[in-house]
Design goal:
2 copies of one chain form a homodimer. Chain A is an alpha/beta fold. Helix content of chain A is 42%, strand content 22%. Chain A folds into 2 domains: 176 residues, 3-Layer(aba) Sandwich (Rossmann fold); 158 residues, Dihydrodipicolinate Reductase, domain 2, CATH 3.30.360.10.
């Protein structure tokens, strides 16, 4: 049995869901894996760098006072005064840092710098932030390896254990190509249009479901799907691919009548991501609207569901589908990475 | 870098495919995992117990002379004379035993006894034989644990990394229920009937494709699907379930006209396996023909493809589909288990 000090960098919806899930799964983690945990660090733009090596009370962290950033709640949960990420990690005696800030797609900063600091401090890092993979995967992987720490990110793409599947369950395979539907918002918008509603209705429906990014343009113009495609290609095909090498087209250009006709013909439009190795050994990748036939492996993903189809040198085809994932699914990606990072240490 | 001594118990089509795949993936196993291997033991009903701690030549093992059991080929590849499984494991200095004999569904013997002997001798065991899981999973798991050895079986069900997925990528989840299509032969037969051909035509077509068991009745009457259902429930739901507790109905009772009409209506028949936890904490399981709607996660499996849908306490739904798996897929299940059994030792 060992107690791990957990630090949260960023504390939005996913962070709240993770704290709840950690509470819910405490007994199983203790009994099956010998893992105990306490939260010793919390950092948000509003609250600043909060650390207490004896542990912060997770109920307080979930309270409205903490969310509002009132100093009284912070003092109640035990504040020490670090002023930057390195001081914070040290004050919290961090074993595992959850990097769950919002994505900054163009540079991945400051998340990359924060992950670097955590690995250098001797902590494992678990992230839901695709920016670190898109902009600095090779450097961070090498750093983690050199420090004997884990850098894990199953929560970044498609709410399924895709990266851990390849790492743990598919050794010595070569991934030739993949195709997938990685963005829920566009799936919801297209289905609304198929029902005769407008593009704007679709955006509102996706916002009601809570699946959109803060800026819906990020979904609608294919940025979210492109970032995920980039992350998958970088990690699973071991080929450095940058975001601007991905051909990208969103769903704004689609005509509502065409969308309805495509559905009626049994070949609905979806925002599809694809990547494949070219004869020259490069990766060709694109994101764009495509019609999907009923017998296509991607056809299984309706509504907010996500799907990915792999073409491997050994298995002719393998498809994973996540049906209607939610915030808990993303939080579980972080929880499972945490368990996998430390299960050999207990 | 470490060299592992491999022993093959049984050497049919899957064994041949595995020897070829081991050859094909040698460089990757060496470079990525530090794993070298040699085959030091081979046992078949015809050839007897063959062992050579210096290694047998895999080309000779794949030759027609070896298959025919001629004594000249055996002496050429270096025969020492063990007379039972324990002597054989010792003479071969076995590190990893592949148990790939044919299934004996009623007792799982003599495979269970052979696996026990191998684990007691200090070898890891990798099997494609469902009988060991159905009849002795708990005992063999406990034995492996007590000896610090691995007992792995990703090649037993559906030609996908299902067991390793749960073991490595889905820690601390609770599986509530699963449904799946686990038998290729019945899929092929039903599709032939949908095209207006007879049941017997379908059996012949499946035999041509090489997907049937030696006795097609074993597929057609749902035994194969039931054995796989039993193995999955035993391992993933951690509830002892015996084969005779599974309600089982094959596809013989289906009327050809009904099968065609169901397809025409977009709800084709499939041989579906299902298991779920009951309110009393037991497992209720059944195998039988069911009509599958187009938006069902299982609809993705046409032809010889296999599919499994999981309902977890955390992820609302997760589906894995193996498209047109073949002998190489099964052999890869054994190869990946071998790598996973030993990767921590190099």
């Amino acid at each position: 049995m060992k107690t791990f000090n957990l630090c949260f960098l960023g504390f939005g919806n996913v962070g709240h869901a993770l704290v709840r899930l950690l509470g819910e799964k405490s007994a199983e983690m203790r009994e099956e894996y010998g893992i105990e945990w306490r939260i010793t660090g919390m950092a948000t733009r509003r609250a600043g760098w909060i650390a207490s090596a004896e542990g912060l009370a997770s109920e307080s962290l979930l309270s409205a006072e903490f969310a509002a950033g009132s100093s009284s709640s912070q003092s109640r949960i035990g504040v020490s005064p670090p002023t930057n990420v390195r001081e914070w990690l040290e004050a919290a005696r961090c074993d595992v840092m959850f990097e769950i800030t919002s994505l900054e797609p163009l540079t991945g900063q400051p998340a990359v710098e924060h992950v670097r600091a955590a690995l250098e401090s001797g902590a494992h890092v678990v992230t839901a932030n695709k920016g670190t993979i898109v902009h600095a995967y090779r450097e961070l992987r090498a750093l983690a390896l050199s420090r004997g720490r884990h850098f894990l990110f199953d929560a970044t793409v498609a709410d399924m254990p895709v990266f851990s599947l390849f790492r743990e369950c598919l050794p010595a395979v070569r991934l030739q190509a993949f195709r997938g539907i990685f963005n829920s918002t566009t799936g919801v918008i297209l289905e609304e249009m198929e029902r005769g509603r407008t593009f704007a209705d679709g955006v509102r429906r996706a916002q009601t479901l809570g699946v959109t990014e803060t800026d819906p343009a990020y979904d609608v113009d294919g940025w979210d799907a492109a970032v995920k495609t980039c992350a998958l290609a970088n990690v699973l095909m071991d080929a450095p691919l940058s975001l601007d090498e991905i051909e990208r087209e969103g769903i704004r250009g689609l005509d509502a009548e065409d969308v309805r006709a495509a559905r009626a013909a049994g070949r609905p439009y979806k925002l599809v991501s694809r990547a494949e190795r070219t004869a020259e050994g490069r990766i060709a990748a694109r994101v764009g609207a495509e019609q999907i036939a009923a017998d296509d492996p991607l056809a299984a993903a309706g509504g907010t569901s996500l799907v990915i189809n792999f073409e491997l040198d050994i298995l002719p085809g393998l498809t994973l589908t996540a049906h209607h994932p939610d915030l808990r699914s993303t939080a579980y990606g972080l929880l499972s990475d945490f368990i996998n990072a430390v299960r050999a240490e207990t």
